[in-house]
């Protein structure tokens, strides 16, 4: 008992083994690991099931404590301590949490929401904003994604949490009764009415929150009355002329596209905009598969308590369930867990049992996404490209090397090796991009300086005369000669040119340095990149393009505005630099700044 107490305080879970790996005993406060440990007699089997980098088979005999960092197939990190003890070994494990932290205050702790995926982290932030503002909120998502849980999380996180939360399903009430349910009625106002009347859901929720589920099912006649309540914040019961003021936060939910219904004429546009103050979209479960294991544990705990059971799912069963599509979303998963907890004959629910109760095919059917190659490339390159896309897609969806390997039909070690290489290639590309970006920024500063100095050396009066007489060499030649001088003196400048806009907005070549490939007076139709740079210059912005290609070659171009005597932009000055020059200058810069470009 003393050893149990000590190990429980030191580690999340621990295993005592013989030197051949046979498990003597284990201690764990984590049900997932405890259940999995009970299935294995040797630590090598356990490690193969849990870790992508097992250590026991390569462990060196050592009398001192050793420490290792291991990674589970579910992409978590575990700090492992190997401690010699009376001829045996203690393997102590501490789990390092790697969940993304939500920087805003999370929803109330009594919320049933599981928040791990980026999609739900975004929802959690929106929940807090909706709770703080107490504004009308519209929840969007497929059936079963948990819209009412989100509504209750908003309620519990806001200042109205001690006031009523009143939910009503707009699709479950007959059209003839929905007005009386929402707004109430007076005694004797219609046949079958209660003698005492009824105050209605909105007055019942006064000072609190009213949740209108399936709001898209409201008939048009009822939509008009709901709109008035939202606008005026008063309700009038059936059979009464008295207006009762209300103070409620309205949260509506739908699994339909209300904007499509507006276009079809089945939902009022003005009501849509009244409801759509804070829209929150809850993604389907298949898009946040990383949360499925925790949802399984959550529902297992609930139904074990409800039915007085002690059942748990094996890791292989959890992996299998995580790979399913769950078209009914969280509601379908919850139903499956409850059914399995009640009907299973085993306390540790196996993969086969999970498959039988789900009645699912053994093959994994991942969510389909088209992979398109739109140009001819070597088959080997195409194979590598498709492999990279599939592996990346699987990891984005499941965030687990083991699950991704399962759905792609490859071994976990192969998946680990390939994914590691993909990550390394992306990191190298990002590092190279970042380095080049820094060096290009420095070069761009220098190119801008050259263009600015040239622009101020051209007298506005000379430019104005050239624009007034676009076909007269008497006025164009002085400007052209000045550009040619810069061209010959400034290293790297391929051409200098001046463009202007005609009355139709076309870009016209006014004049340039010697040898420019576009004739004077011609309309310039070029790359979108350079056209944007010209637009920026006309708006007074000094602009340098990235390297681009046109029919004349590959270039980097700097464009600056040229002003008349009143300070108005009347043309732009541009300098072209060849791709070879730019690359050579980047190499020189990298050497002078001691930054590696390769």
Q: Could you characterize the architecture of this molecule?
A:
With 598 residues, the protein is an alpha/beta fold. The protein has four domains: 2-96, Beta-Lactamase, CATH 3.30.450; 118-281, P-loop containing nucleotide triphosphate hydrolases (Rossmann fold, 3-Layer(aba) Sandwich), CATH 3.40.50.300; 285-353, Helicase, Ruva Protein, domain 3 (Orthogonal Bundle), CATH 1.10.8.60; 445-591, Beta-Lactamase (2-Layer Sandwich), CATH 3.30.450. The strands form five sheets. Strands 15, 16, 17, 18, 19 and 20 form a six-stranded antiparallel beta sheet that branches. The chain has a five-stranded antiparallel beta sheet with strand order 2-1-5-4-3. α12 runs parallel beside α14 (351-358). The longest helix has 46 residues, at 412-457. The chain is flat and about 100 Å long. Residues 98-106 and 360-368 have low confidence and may be disordered.
Write the layout of secondary structure elements.
Layout lengths: L1 H9 L2 E5 L5 E6 L2 H7 L5 H8 L15 E6 L5 E9 L2 E9 L21 H16 L3 E4 L6 H11 L7 E5 L5 H9 L16 H5 L4 E5 L6 H13 L1 E2 L8 E2 L3 E6 L3 H7 L4 H7 L2 E4 L10 H16 L4 E2 L1 H8 L6 H15 L4 E2 L1 H8 L20 H20 L2 H8 L3 H46 L2 H9 L4 H17 L3 E9 L5 E6 L15 H11 L4 E2 L3 E3 L2 E11 L5 E10 H15 L5
Parallel strand pairs: 6-11, 6-12, 7-8, 8-11, 13-14
Antiparallel strand pairs: 1-2, 1-5, 3-4, 4-5, 9-10, 15-16, 15-20, 17-19, 18-19, 19-20
């Amino acid at each position: 008992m003393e050893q149990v107490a000590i190990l429980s305080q030191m580690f999340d879970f621990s295993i005592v083994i013989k030197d051949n790996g046979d498990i003597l005993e284990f201690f764990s406060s984590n049900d997932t690991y405890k259940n999995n440990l009970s299935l294995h007699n040797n630590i090598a089997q356990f490690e193969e099931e849990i870790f992508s980098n097992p250590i026991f088979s390569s462990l060196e005999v050592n009398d001192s404590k050793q420490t290792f960092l291991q990674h589970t197939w579910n992409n978590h990190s575990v700090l492992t301590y190997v401690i010699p003890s009376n001829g045996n070994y203690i393997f102590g494990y501490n789990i390092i949490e790697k969940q993304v932290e939500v920087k805003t205050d999370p929803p109330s702790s009594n919320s049933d929401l599981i928040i791990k995926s980026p999609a739900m982290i975004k929802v959690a932030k929106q929940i807090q904003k909706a709770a703080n503002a107490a504004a009308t909120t519209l929840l969007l998502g497929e059936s079963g994604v948990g819209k009412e849980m989100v509504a209750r999380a908003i309620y519990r996180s806001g200042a109205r949490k001690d006031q009523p939360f009143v939910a009503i399903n707009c699709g479950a009430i007959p059209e003839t009764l929905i007005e009386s349910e929402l707004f109430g009625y007076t005694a004797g106002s219609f046949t079958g009415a209660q003698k005492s009347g009824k105050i209605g859901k909105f007055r019942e929720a006064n000072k609190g929150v009213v949740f209108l589920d399936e709001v898209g099912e409201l008939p048009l006649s009822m939509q008009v009355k709901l709109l008035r309540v939202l606008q005026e914040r008063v309700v009038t019961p059936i059979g009464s002329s008295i207006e009762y003021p209300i103070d409620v936060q309205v949260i509506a939910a739908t699994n339909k596209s209300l904007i499509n219904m507006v276009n079809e004429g089945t939902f009022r546009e003005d009501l849509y905009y009244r409801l759509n103050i804070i829209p929150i979209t809850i993604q389907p479960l298949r898009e946040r598969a990383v949360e499925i294991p925790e949802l399984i544990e959550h529902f297992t705990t609930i139904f074990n308590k409800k039915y007085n059971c002690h059942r748990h799912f094996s890791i292989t069963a959890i992996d299998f369930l995580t790979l399913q599509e769950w078209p009914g979303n969280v509601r379908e998963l919850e139903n499956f867990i409850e059914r399995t907890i009640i009907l299973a004959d085993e306390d540790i629910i196996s993969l086969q049992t999970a498959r039988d109760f789900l009645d699912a095919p053994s093959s994994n059917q991942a969510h389909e996404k088209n992979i398109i190659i739109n140009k001819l490339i070597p088959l080997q390159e195409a194979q590598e490209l498709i492999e990279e896309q599939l592996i990346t897609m699987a990891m984005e969806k499941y965030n687990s090397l083991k699950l991704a390997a399962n759905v792609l039909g490859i071994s976990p070690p192969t998946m680990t090796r390939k994914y590691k290489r993909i990550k390394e290639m992306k990191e190298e590309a990002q590092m190279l991009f970042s380095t080049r970006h820094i060096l290009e920024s420095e070069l761009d500063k220098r190119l801008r300086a050259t263009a600015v100095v040239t622009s101020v050396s051209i007298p506005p009066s000379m430019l104005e005369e050239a624009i007034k007489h676009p076909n007269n060499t008497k006025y164009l030649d002085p400007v052209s000669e000045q550009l040619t001088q810069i061209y010959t003196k400034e290293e790297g400048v391929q051409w200098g040119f001046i463009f202007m806009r005609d009355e139709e907005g076309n870009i016209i070549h006014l004049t340039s340095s010697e040898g420019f490939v576009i004739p004077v007076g011609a309309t310039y139709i070029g790359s979108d990149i350079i056209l944007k740079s010209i637009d920026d210059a006309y708006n007074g912005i000094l602009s340098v393009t990235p390297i681009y290609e046109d029919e004349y070659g590959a270039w980097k171009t700097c464009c600056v505005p040229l002003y008349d005597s009143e300070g108005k932009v009347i043309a732009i000055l541009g300098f072209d630099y060849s791709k070879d020059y730019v690359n050579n200058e980047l190499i020189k810069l990298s050497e002078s700044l001691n930054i590696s470009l390769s």
